[in-house]
Amino acid sequence: MSRKTLWILVSLLLVVAMLGAACQQKKAAGPITFGMLLVGPYNDHGWSQAHYDAGKYVETKLAGSKMIYVDKVNPADRPGTTPAQLAEELVAKGATLVVFNSDDMKDSATEFSKAHPDIKVIMASGDQVWKEGKAYVELPNMINIMGRMEYGKMVAGCAAALTSQTGKIGYLGPLINDETRRLTASAYLGAKYCWTKYLGKDAAALSFKVTWIGFWFNIPGVTSDPTQVADDFFNSGYDVVISGIDTTEAVAEAKKLSAAGQKVWAIPYDYVGSCEEGKEICLGVPYFNWGPAYVKTITSAADGSWKSNWQWNAPDWKDINNLDTSAVGFKKGNALSADAASKVDEFIKELAGGLNLWKGPINLQDGSAYLKDGEVGTDQQVWYLPQLLQGMEGQSVPSK
Amino acid sequence: MKNLRWNNFLFQLVAFLLALAFTSLIMVFAGAPPISAYVEILGGAFGSVNSLANVVVVWMPLLLVTSGLLITFTAGLWNIGIEGQITLGAIFTTAALRLLQESSLPPWLIILLAMLAGVAGGALWAVMAGLLKTFGGVNEIFGGLGLNFVATALTLWLIFGPWKRPGTGSMSGTEPFPDTLWLPQLPGLRLSPWSVIFGAAAIYLVYRLLSGTYFGLRLKAIGKNVRAAFLLGVPAWQHSLLAFALCGFFAGLAGALQVTAVYHRLIPSISSGYGFLGLLVAMLVNYQALWAAPVALFFAALNIGSIQLPIMLNLDSSLSGVLQGMLVLFVLLTEGARKRWLQKNG
Amino acid sequence: MNVELRDIHKIFAAVHANNGINLKIPAGVIQGILGENGAGKSTLMKILSGFYQPSQGQILLDDKPVIIRSPADATRQGVGMLHQDPLDFPSMRVIDNFLIGHPGELIPDRGQAAAQLEAIQQKLGFSLRPEAHVDTLTVGERQQLEILRLLWLGVRVLILDEPTTGISALQKEKLFAALRLLAQEGKTIIFVSHKLEDVEVLCHKVAVLRQGRLIGEMLPPFNITRLVEMMFEKVITLGNRRSCCRGEISFRLNALELEDARLHIPGVSLEVQGGEVIGLAGMEGSGQALFLRACAGLVRAVGGHISINEHDLTGKPYHTYLEHGIAYLPAARLEEGLAPGMTLTEHFLLAGEARGFNIDWEQGRKVAQERIADFNIRGTPASPIEALSGGNQQRALLALLKHPLNLILLEHPTRGLDIESSIYIWDKLKERCAEGAVILFISSDLEELLQYSDRLLVFFSGEVSSPLDAERTTVEHLGQFIGGKGWAA
């Protein structure tokens, strides 16, 4: 091969590469404005803030992308409006993709997607476009994203069981549906596993009770008051409360009682920074990290590779707290003892190694068998858990 | 007389400007640009056909509620129970829809029956307040507050109890109705022309009723001096009850619209606070039907337009609530000032 | 203190209530202000006492021009006004009312105040108990309290608006004596009234107002006929007694027994002929008001029967009474009879028969215009009822009565009205009698009772006299009877 040919080849390669790069850059650089509907306040130290921060993360990762949002999207805070209507406001302001961040907006998101086929929709926590799911609707412009928080909750349950001195764990539940049933059950499975495996205690000696407040956060006069519920737990012997709601009342209440001399702990939910409210009693927080999935999905909307799908993203088992890769994480809190912390780490390692707690025998709350001995729960079985599990106290509202 | 009216208008204008000035001041303190905030609110309310339609979606139930309240105010009654009456309207409508949705009746008939049920529910709740007042000696303000409480509790119980969605226990609301049971909407908009028809008819009817009928005149007499009205032969408590019932009728219709035209299900805050907003509107227009429509429009526009504040300026949209509150406060203040002024210089 | 009013004008929206009034009142003089209702007396006095600002003109106190901004300002400058309705706080004690409005320390020295109250009382011959509750006082005593309070505050000009309405003869004597004493001390007294006899015995000087203007002044001896002319532009005499009794019984009470918290009225039996007028006499609160309300169907009898034209109405609701042509006109016109905030037209429409569902406003205004002309009401169809003067309100109440009526029940039909209005009102009532209506009325004016009644019932703490023939009863006899003398044991 002559030098000349070599040069030609190199130039061609360069041109192709540059063209490719140029093309790619052009696609990716298409400035995209995405809208976000947050069910709670953007700074709630919980579910909504996790989404808001993920939006900010997208802005830093995707040059030219811009987030606009409306928070407190719920009928109590914004009377007379519906999420679909607010999504239209975002579209009017230039959004070509809208994130509906709450299960509460599910119906509205479907309605909006149907009415606006040209707008891309991310419905967080939904299952509308899961082909194998029970609620499948064909919506080419919608993608469902959810993290496999079951693992986070198992770790939370484990930390609670390792810490509890009374063997009584309270779960501050939001409303009752498939999602909350499976998350609560996962926390129970984690707690039971660590209670028996690491502490060698009898499963029957562990009590695990759920109290539902009725919504994702406190709506005065409508829901039960989460502060009151947490207080009732702590004052009736439950020394660890795991929060399943979007806000941090459990932490605040534990901090207050702890300051008054009670030995109590709490585990918040959703948002990586929510231990800050009460470091001295916080055992850690299972949190969502929506950023990576949003970057991927919003990029696909910008470059045309968008395809309707349902995502249930697992943690990055190499490092569940890697904010650039893991959809779900668990951040240990200051109140977790060194011994418990090492056991929690061991539990996480076991999970990473393939430990599956959703494996039979598992009975439902009413005693009926759900997973036979050795049977591994499918995604459908876990997602659509019809009841709480045997051994858990609390309302189930069975779904058929 | 003409002078007096001008004078009145001038005082209202001053009230409005003062409210604006004070809200602006608060915004400046909060580090927000007042002018662009107002521009955003205006644009958000009237900037497009879509947003205008959304304003009307709020306007119409508000107008219905205000119409009803004008009747009770004329009869000298403080119908604070209006929130509960809207809620009962919504509950009855939902109940009828749930009951009939599996039946073989044509959808339009189901919707019609459901709305009639809603109207009946609102009227029933209002008459309860009236009966408590007439025969129980309970002031309608306290009776109304109590009934509001009961209505809210009833809604929550229904949503979390008997009417919960299958497999779900949530305060977010009941199962949405299929769109065959929605009031027909204008293509591409969230607005049902029926709401507009009901709202317009309500305010017109109430205007006619209060200004052009013997019934309205009797209500006014009861409102001005119940003793004199009675002595002159007006059956006073019967008319009071009727005023309650009519107000409840309109409130119930508003609640029915919230279910059939806006939310398509029952939610905890189904009344959207229109009852209390309606009380404000009625007070601001000095209980005159003529001005109710524009003032209700103003409040509806504020409600919808203020959604822009968090989107565009990262401001809390409760600022519009501040403006509303200021407005009411200043109108009441200037009304007091006007009366003093009239007394001195009339 | 010398008071001078210079060219005072006061214009309310459409009414020139005071039109260029000039009046000088030297210290130590009791100045009478006469005028019929609506002549502008009250307005003028309210200007002097700071309730209103004059539209034009000047007030001079001791020859210095002053501006009086408010009633409190007036008291500071030495001008105090005693209102027709006492402006006190009924649930409080005498001493506390006395202290109210006194400038000075945050915590008043009640002991010292009580001593001062006592001192002034003694001088004026009043005898109020400082610890008594005001609502236990009579109108006359409340008036005394107000005078004491104003004097204690240091007023040197005392304005009294119709002070002799509703007080007893004895209290009137006391009041007049006190006023004469104060005048001797150099206080200026302004005495507003339409009662000629009061002015005649008390005043040093009288000014007459008519339609907002000062018509003239007069010094004693007063020529009453001339004063009446000045007030009304014409000479008025009370009409002749006339009776319209028809002979047949229209209204019948059979052993009607009544009861309220304070009183028990044992069986009253009465048969009244169509067209007859029955006067109900008695001290206030002797049972006549209860009786009248029972006849109207507003109070349920505990025993006995009421019937009109042979229809038994016993125990029937008020509405049935209305349907049988019974009308009741309460004494508290604006509180019970009329609806403030509504116009004359609205009142006529309300009281008239509803023609269909919708109101024909054009027709309504026409009817109102006719009635206004018919009853000589000073006002327009669009006038709010509260803007009318007392006499005109009373005329309006009469104009609201339906046609025909079988029984008209009135409380104090001419209270607070001038002679002309009173005569007018009785003319209208007599027309009703001529049509066959029975009239029962309460009055505390003995002349009125004797002049217009055919028969009289006297009430004395729940006791009811047998009917007296008015023509054969004298004022003295009636007065004694009312006072409890001459009752058979």
Description:
- The complex is a heterotrimer of chains A (400), B (346) and C (489).
- Chain A has 400 residues and is of the alpha/beta class.
- Chain A folds into 3 domains: 30 residues; 140 residues, 3-Layer(aba) Sandwich (Rossmann fold); 199 residues, 3-Layer(aba) Sandwich (Rossmann fold), CATH 3.40.50.
- Helices cover 38% and strands 16% of the residues of chain A.
- Chain A is globular, with a radius of gyration of 23 Å.
- About 4% of the residues of chain A have low confidence.
- By secondary structure, chain B is mainly alpha-helical.
- Chain C has 2 domains: 230 residues, 3-Layer(aba) Sandwich (Rossmann fold); 234 residues, 3-Layer(aba) Sandwich (Rossmann fold), CATH 3.40.50.300.
- Helices cover 34% and strands 25% of the residues of chain C.
- In chain C, the strands form 4 sheets. In chain C, strands 13, 16, 17, 18, 19, 20 and 21 form a 7-stranded mixed sheet that branches. In chain C, strands 6-7-8-3-9-10 form a 6-stranded mixed sheet, with helices on both faces.
- In chain C, α4 crosses α5, α12 packs across α13 and α14 packs parallel to α15.
- Chain C is globular.
- At the A-B interface, β2 and α3 of A face α3, α6 and α13 of B.
**The number of domains of chain C:** 2
Termini separation of chain B comes to 11 Å
Query: Structural class given helices, strands, pairing of chain B?
Result: mainly alpha
- Elements of chain B, N to C (H/E): HHHHHHHHHHHHHH
The tally of domains of chain B stands at 1
Classified in CATH, the superfamily of the largest domain in chain C is: P-loop containing nucleotide triphosphate hydrolases
List the helices and strands and how they pair.
The complex is a heterotrimer of chains A (400), B (346) and C (489).
Chain A: H1 3-29, E1 33-37, H2 47-61, E2 66-70, H3 83-92, E3 97-100, H4 106-115, E4 120-124, E5 142-147, H5 149-163, E6 168-173, H6 178-197, E7 207-212, H7 226-235, E8 240-243, H8 249-259, E9 265-267, E10 284-288, H9 291-303, E11 310-313, E12 328-332, H10 338-352, E13 362-363, E14 369-371, H11 379-383, E15 392-393
Parallel strand pairs in A: 1-2, 1-3, 3-4, 4-5, 5-11, 6-7, 6-8, 7-15, 8-9
Antiparallel strand pairs in A: 10-12, 13-14
Chain B: H1 2-29, H2 34-46, H3 49-74, H4 82-100, H5 107-136, H6 140-160, H7 193-212, H8 214-224, H9 226-231, H10 236-263, H11 274-284, H12 292-305, H13 308-313, H14 319-345
Chain C: E1 3-12, E2 15-25, E3 30-34, H1 41-48, E4 56-61, E5 64-66, H2 71-76, E6 79-82, H3 94-99, H4 110-124, H5 139-152, E7 157-161, H6 169-184, E8 188-193, H7 196-202, E9 205-210, E10 213-218, H8 224-232, E11 249-259, E12 264-273, E13 277-282, H9 288-296, E14 303-308, E15 311-312, H10 318-323, E16 326-329, H11 333-337, H12 344-351, H13 361-374, H14 390-399, E17 407-411, H15 419-434, E18 438-442, H16 446-452, E19 455-460, E20 463-464, E21 468-469, H17 475-482
Parallel strand pairs in C: 3-8, 3-9, 6-7, 7-8, 13-18, 13-19, 16-17, 17-18
Antiparallel strand pairs in C: 1-2, 1-4, 4-5, 9-10, 11-12, 11-14, 14-15, 19-20, 19-21
Helix pairs in contact in C: 4-5, 12-13, 14-15
